[in-house]
Write a structure and sequence with these properties.
With about 250 residues, the chain is α+β, with helices and mostly antiparallel strands. The protein folds into 2 domains: about 160 residues, Sandwich (Jelly Rolls); about 70 residues, Winged helix-like DNA-binding domain superfamily/Winged helix DNA-binding domain (Arc Repressor Mutant, subunit A, Orthogonal Bundle), CATH 1.10.10.10. It has 9 helices and 12 strands. The strands form 3 sheets. The chain has a 5-stranded antiparallel sheet. Strands 3-8-5-6 form a 4-stranded antiparallel sheet. The protein is globular and about 55 Å long.
Length: about 250
């Protein structure tokens, strides 16, 4: 499995070239994009793929580069970062295991609109863009799976735009904190997984205002100290941020 990279594309740590193992198939078959496909189909569409590992802090690609690969996150966390010519940048999205990202660039043959950076040690499956386009033409099940992935991501983006326009910064921060725990009742002690610059970008505020947003949540039973957060009443906080109003 795998293809040789040109010198200027050699990023991350590429796993040795080999056929997909039974363990690989089992792992990849559980990813949302592939879960409806047969093992034979999965083996065919990944025959020219490669697996890469990226250490924390390394960029996978940069805004403006041509999209040669479809990226699928198997393990880890990836941050999508947008920037402007003046040098200012912000975190647009934080991706978790199982997600396919910036597939629109691959499907349209356009450059990436954002950069991608490993926020933790990450393992990715990369499918070559030209092979993927051919497979989509020939494989209706794969095409439907890709459409479902794009539709889900579109709905998530619409929800985030609505939150930016309709919810306060305090509500968006509360919503982010609720995403860090599976509990919905009682109290919780959380350790923030990212620094406050990343968190500020994620909820759509400037880093220098994040402390004030945390301070505003004291009235809702939230106490923050460095990267630790205590929530006195999860049910109350969920009500405050209107969690559950949107069904993605």
């Amino acid at each position: 499995m795998g293809v040789a990279l040109r010198h200027d594309e050699r990023k991350g740590g590429e796993e040795p070239t080999r056929p997909l193992s039974t363990e690989d198939l089992s792992t990849f078959s559980q990813l949302p994009l592939f879960c409806t496909l047969s093992d034979d189909c999965l083996r065919r569409i990944t025959s020219d793929a490669k697996i890469l590992r990226f250490p924390k802090g390394e960029f996978l690609f940069h805004q403006g580069e041509n999209a040669r690969w479809l990226h699928i996150l198997v393990e880890g966390q990836i941050g999508l970062i947008g920037s402007v010519s003046g040098g200012e940048e912000t975190i647009v999205e934080i991706l978790k295991s199982g997600e396919v990202f910036i597939s629109a660039a691959v499907l349209t043959g356009k450059p990436y609109l954002m950069s991608a950076k490993a926020l933790s040690p990450s393992r990715l499956l990369l499918l070559p863009a030209d092979r993927l386009l051919n497979d989509l033409r020939d494989n209706p099940d794969l095409a439907l799976a890709m459409l479902a992935s794009l539709a889900k991501h579109f709905r998530q983006l619409v929800t985030e735009v609505k939150d930016l326009k309709l919810k306060s910064a305090s509500q968006r921060l509360a919503q982010y904190l609720m995403s860090l725990t599976p509990k919905r009742e009682g109290s919780a002690i959380l350790h923030l997984p990212h620094n406050k610059i990343l968190i500020a970008g994620r909820i759509g505020v400037r880093p220098e205002t994040l402390s004030r947003v945390f301070l505003a949540l004291k009235n809702e039973g939230v106490v923050n100290e460095n990267l630790n957060v205590a929530i006195a009443d999860l049910k109350r906080l969920a009500l405050f941020c209107q969690e559950g109003d949107e069904i993605i």
